[in-house]
Amino acid sequence: MSTDSIDIAVHAGALSDGLCEQLAVVGQRGIAGFSDDRPVSASLVRSRLTNALTGAPPVLVLARADEELVGWCAVRHPEPHEARARLWGPVVDPRVRRSGLGSQLLREVTGLVVWPLVTTDVPVDRPGAAEFFAGAEWCVLHEVTVLRGVPLPRSTAIAGNGVGLDDLDGYVAAAARQFGGHPDGFAEATLRLWRDDARFQPEHLLLDPQTGSLLLALAQHNEASSELLLAELWAAPGARRPLIRAAHTVAARQGLEVVRAVTRDDPTPFVACGMTVMGRCLIFTPPGDR
Known about the structure:
Layout: E1 6-11, H1 17-31, H2 42-49, E2 59-65, E3 68-76, E4 85-92, H3 101-110, E5 117-119, E6 122-123, H4 129-135, E7 139-149, E8 160-161, H5 168-178, H6 184-196, E9 205-208, E10 213-221, E11 226-234, H7 237-253, E12 258-263, H8 268-272, E13 276-285
Parallel strand pairs: 4-5, 11-12
Antiparallel strand pairs: 1-2, 2-3, 3-4, 6-13, 7-12, 7-13, 8-9, 9-10, 10-11
Helix pairs in contact: 1-2, 5-6
């Protein structure tokens, strides 16, 4: 595919269903075969790019070649009490990689925003990805570990979830403060943010009321694959493994193909539950934003 005919333009306004589908297709192509490969759907794209509490659409830049979407980069507006806005991308169709398009998209979108930024997870095993941000003088803020496991039915002492709990907001906020280290304002808004995620289901919020611990698991799928993502584990040491095992049971009962975890913490509890380290990801922030 020739890069001579690629047009870059800012998208203004809300995200249509058709555009979300196009963003999902290019996004799926971009991660295929790497450690962060996972099902991408239009509903997932919409929920991840749109501000959960205000409904504000993202700052979005699109690249098209003969009307076909071949790349995009977006910034989701920061939620109240978030220190940084989230950068998604640049996402570039494999057919036009190493053409300079990613750099163009990054420059364009960052020139449109005034907030401090942080990237989504950048896999170390994706050729050139970490070097791309390092070359733009972005700095590593965090490193995370990616793990995968096979859903297998297991007996577990922890089977509780958030369904029917009288004060689920209070429970989640307390866990966010105690185990996640989040400030009060963010902690109080956490459950509202989670509920806006297209992958959220109340029965996948696993709880250990004795310790106030929780594990947030998010089911995602498209026509090709499915998984249960262990997204947040805010737990006392003794509750971590039982919660992880409970999530594997949930995945098996629902016929999901893979259990995946992304964690900044020690991956030992996940490995002890049969999960395998698949790779590492880096999270970057622009120069001066650290």
